Structures are given as structure tokens and as C-alpha cells.
Amino acid sequence: MNNLSSIRFTAPCAILAALLCVPPIAFADSPASQPPLAILAQPITNVDGQTQAWPEVVMQDGMDAEQQRKVIASLGRRFEDFTKKGINSPIDIPRAVKKSVDGGVFRTYSYFFTVHTSLETLNDENLLTKLFAENKNGEGEGEDLGVVGDDKYSYAHEPELLKRISLSMVLRSNDTKTDASVYAGSIVVAADPENRQQSSWAPLDKPEDKTPYLGMGIYTKATPLVELPDVLFFEAHMVFYEPKAWFRGKNLLGAKLPIMIQDQVRTLRRGVAR
């Protein structure tokens, strides 16, 4: 079994590090009749009440080997290429889906890759808790805000997001396991249960003009391949609302995210290979 206890990764931006960092809380079993994660029970909603549905899982539990191969083929990849071992094995990031809302944009990213490790190692070593950097180790600021039931709350602050805005996020995170996979995810909420921190953004030239922020979340699912049980198929689905005032409609953050994601996945693979 790989020793993963010392893996810590860094991210170039707290927005990514915070969302993709899964908190170290005990996995809970997910009843079949409930969404695998509590955060998936409702769509992503911004402060104006406009919504964007979560992307659906592509690698469903219970698929046989042929069905799993079809999923990978739908990404335009040969099974043998997509599952090969290596730092630079394929990472698929399908084109973002955009939905304009009052000048703002909901951006949706789904990305897919494999990691050569077992589901048992993922559970036993809490690999998902080390998937990406803890926000406090990145360029931003962050803190844990406690656990309520199966949810963990944390705070992340990116002081200079792309040199344009300051972004503060309160994150509600949870994870769970089924008989055949592991899920984990985070969503931005208005405030933590004790209202110690609030989610907001402000332009760098007017830091006093804080505006409440909502509309961002991500979930990840890891599923073993039937033909290769020590190879996990990872899929991650991210949604974020980008107000027009952030970047005046330019796709600056959306263009940067795929590069950041690829760097993080390669770092994960290096850590697992140690």
C-alpha cells in the first residue's frame, strides 16, 4: 500500500485549492434513495436566486466492463491510452458550458482522469483529503470553521484573484462512500452556522464595496475499473457563477482553470507514485 500520509499539494489560486480540497472527515454511507452528497440535493444558486444544475455522474456505480469502456470511449479516448500509468496520462476537460444570466455567466467544467491506486487505499489513507492543497498552504488565507453533522465548514480568502477582485468563501463540504465508489464535494454558502465568516467579493480598487457571493461548487467521484481494480476513474464536476463585474465578461478565470487542473492532477499522480 502506498504511504500517502505526507502528500501535500500547492495551488496557484485559493479558489481552486479551497474547492478541490476535501475535508478530513469520516466517510458516511450514502442511502440508495438519497443523493450521494447532501450538497447535490439542490442546484447551484447565486445571490439573485438564479440556478445552474449540477452535471451528472458519467461513471455510474454498477456498470460492467463494457459499459465502463463506452464511457471512456465517449471522451474520445482509447481505453488502453486513458488508463496507462504515468504522470502525463490523459486528462480530459470537456469544453465549458456557459449560461448567461443578467450579464453574468455560470461556467460548468467536468474533467476526467485515472490514478493507479485502489479504492481501499483511497479510503484507508484518506487520499481524497490530500487530493489538492489545503487552502491555508496556498497563496490565500483560510481556516477551519468546525463540523456540523456530516458537514465540515471552512473559510477561504483569495486576496487578489487574477489581480482584479478579492474573494471570500465559506465552504460547506462533505463526503460519502457507496459499495463501489467514493464521493466528495464542496459548495459555497452564505455563511457558516455561527455566522463568523461570510462569502463575499469586492473589487481591488474598492475593497470596502463588498458584495455577497454564492454560486460555486464542485464534487468528485472515484470509481474502480472492473478490468483494472487498482485503477480509479476520477471525475470532477465544477460549477461557478461569475458576475460580469469580475472580469467584464472576459473568460480570464475559465481559461486559467484547465491549466491549473492539469497541474494538480499531475501532482496527485506524482504523490501516489512515491
TrEMBL record:
Signal peptide range in chain numbering: 1-28
Protein name per UniProt: Uncharacterized protein
Keywords: Signal
Organism: Rosistilla ulvae
